[in-house]
Specification:
alpha/beta, Rossmann fold, ten-stranded mixed beta sheet
């Protein structure tokens, strides 16, 4: 995993403590069980430690509500650090993502990992951030959010990072993947794009795809990434067709060192596909080579 280096900017984190915002360099843990995560004294399952805080981005001039889920045996001094999973639309989907990262980490099907859900403090601006001005949102993630998570929660800068997006967030995940070689850093190794809103905007993604193909021909870098795509068979036609078009496009390219897997889930719709898609995507990206 590539280290995030160079042009890190100063950031301001607004923590929510006792219902009042205070300016501080670190958030205060608010676990569901205790302030310091302790191993379970018995086989009884212990809930993972969770925390929430707010962060202002200079890139989007907006505040984000961040949800953090830590492994049950989280150790802030763990020498190798932790892999991280970033989930868009965190207000809606954080709990679902937390269940799967926790359970798969406990079963050994993926490494113990930190999951980070990204939501909004004020109005939901996902259309702006995911589709209309993705560059600003991208720089918020790579220059402000990721460095803070790695520093505060012992995220491993050289470990695996996964980006999960659904609907418009699925579009953003593909957009980030197709920026490889063009943007200054490539923080994510794995991408899970579920029910992506490719329709109407697919020509934009195809343009990025064309540029990426030309850039790869010039040499100097490789993709080195995994992409899992999913869609429900009962979704509206533009979602299923968008999935099929994007799937065909990426397989036609046969990008070196880009692994692509996907599934159309029988009987599932735009909402119900998310939970199994997250689980299957994580199982696949962390599966044995």
């Amino acid at each position: 995993m590539k280290k995030i280096a160079g042009f890190l900017v100063s950031m301001m984190v607004l923590l929510v403590v006792s219902g009042c915002g205070v300016l501080a360099p670190q958030p205060t843990l608010t676990p569901e069980t205790s302030a310091t995560p302790q191993p379970s004294p018995s086989p009884t399952p212990v809930k993972p430690v969770t925390q929430e805080f707010e962060i202002f981005s200079r890139y989007t001039a907006d505040e984000y509500h961040i949800y953090v889920g830590l492994p049950r045996d989280f150790d802030p001094n763990r020498a190798e650090g932790y892999d991280t999973v970033y989930l868009l639309d965190g207000t809606a989907w954080f709990r679902s993502g937390l269940v799967h990262t926790s359970n798969l980490g406990e079963s050994g099907e993926m490494p113990p990992s930190i999951i980070v859900g990204i939501g909004y403090v004020h109005a939901n601006m996902r259309g702006r951030d995911f589709m209309l001005n993705p560059e600003a949102f991208y720089f918020f993630i790579i220059e402000e959010l990721i460095p803070f998570i790695d520093r505060q929660y012992n995220g491993d800068p050289d470990g695996e990072r996964t980006l999960i997006g659904h609907s418009m967030g699925g579009y953003f995940a593909i957009w980030v993947l197709l920026q490889r070689g063009f943007l200054p850093v490539e923080p994510f190794d794995n991408f899970i794009s579920l029910s992506g809103s490719y329709h109407g905007m697919h020509k934009n993604l195809f343009t990025y795809d064309d540029l990426l193909a030309m850039r790869l021909e010039e040499g100097g870098f490789t993709m080195d990434a995994k992409l899992y795509m999913g869609v429900g068979s009962d979704e509206e036609g533009f979602f299923t067709q968008g999935y099929l078009d994007m799937w065909a496009r990426l397989h036609e390219r046969e990008y070196e060192n880009l692994e692509v897997e996907g599934q159309m889930y029988p009987g599932l719709n735009h909402g119900s596909v998310l939970s199994p898609g997250i689980k299957d995507g994580l199982l696949w990206v962390y599966g044995e080579e």
